[in-house]
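seq as requested:
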Amino acid sequence: MRTLDVIIVRIYLTEGEGQLNRIIDLLKEKEEVRGVTVFRGIAGFGPSGSFHTSSWSDLSLDLPLVLEMFDEPGKIQHVLKHLAEIIKPGHILTWPGQINIDGKN
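struct tokens:
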């Protein structure tokens, strides 16, 4: 199996901040990263200590969001420079990974 080295990026957001669409547009249209997945959390808190949660009786529009993407290291380093202008410090995690580039489509 042949693999390709990549950098995986995870970004922590909150729905109420209204940044998601701007970030997705940047990643899709300008940066053209391989792909993006957004996960909507059911509960979470950050440095502010404010607890965001959902329940059956409370359909909150201020839940935690996790945006995840990966691409080749050079591309990700370029993308991170632009994201640093938009995302608060301490909300972006990165780590190395590998993807399978062989196989059936």
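Helices lie at 20-30, 73-83.
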